[in-house]
What does this fold into?
Amino acid sequence: MSEMQEYVDIRKYSTLQVGGQFRYLFRVTNTDELGEVYSFSREKDLPVFVLGGGSNIVFHDGVLHYVVIKMEIQGFQIIEDAHEHIDIKVGAGVAWDTFVAQTVAMELSGIEAMSAIPGTVGATPVQNVGAYGQEAKDTIVSVEVFDIENNAIKILANAECAFAYRDSIFKNEAKGKYVITSVTYRLSKKVPTMPNYPGVKKYFDEKKIAHPTLQEIRTAIIDIRKNKLPDPKDIPSAGSFFKNPIVSRSTAEKLKEEHPSVTIFPVDDERMKIPAGWLIEQAGLKGKDFGALSTYIHNALVLVNNGSAVFADVESVRDQIVTTVFDKFGITLEVEPEFV
Ligand SMILES: Cc1cc2nc3c(=O)[nH]c(=O)nc-3n(C[C@H](O)[C@H](O)[C@H](O)COP(=O)(O)OP(=O)(O)OC[C@H]3O[C@@H](n4cnc5c(N)ncnc54)[C@H](O)[C@@H]3O)c2cc1C
It folds into this structure.
């Protein structure tokens, strides 16, 4: 049986550093231990919660009566080495950015634009993480899961995961059904393409680099992110606090007419994505001090814990931002991190 702790301070396990205590926490390093933890949870009649790096969750205060699995399954295995691609199976507990760095060093492309996203490999399918034009769904071949009800390992193909913008079955119908134990990614041996983002283009224009290498793209992304996203080691946050709202083309075009400075991104023929950070900034809330929390001075989309925030503070600030943006634009923002 894996190591068990009781009444664990949640703030150490949450990049926002908000929350009370976990009743039980198990560090799980292999799939056999999962069955044992579930037997324990049935014995105690408590639900299980799977925790990666705690970078996309807002926890309640007080004692959370959960059996928490701290996912620490390691592993890095080349499954297939083909002419144009390599398939790599990676343990769910591996730090995502460690894996990205390894693939870049191997000159494999596909996830370099997702450099420096905090958290674990096992969480990347959950909200289909993405940044600078790349999304986890574009490289995931399959997801290996522990099927809780049947106490068995199962493989889900990419198509079975119903990936969408910051969404998948793991957030919906399969929530609480599976623990992700490893993920297999297909990475390309082809020459990388520069992320098609104004900030990235500007970065390379200034450096007069027309065809950046993978390592140069990774370095650029890390540099650009440093200015926009606080490092959880220094400033507690849960990253982007709101999703970029997806609206009808007509709503987006009307907004563009009224506010030519807004950048809108096409999603499909009928829908467009609007940067939530821009909406919050235009509503006058960039760098706003709400007391226990602030919006980040360099990026209105990030909520920063000033040191003493509790769950109710997060809820109150969320509501103030949602209301202010709705009153100005008629657009309802949705929170990105999960509230537990
Ligand atoms: C500074 C900062 C920047 C960020 N930038 C980005 C970004 O650019 N793009 C982006 O998409 N996200 C971003 N995020 C959000 C976050 O990093 C990602 O969502 C990340 O994938 C969460 O990983 P985690 O291991 O911390 O998951 P956690 O926060 O621990 O968990 C998130 C959810 O996944 C579930 N989960 C975790 N592991 C497993 C598993 N093995 N099996 C089943 N369920 C599991 C949890 O139960 C929970 O529901 C950022 C966050 C921060 C703090």
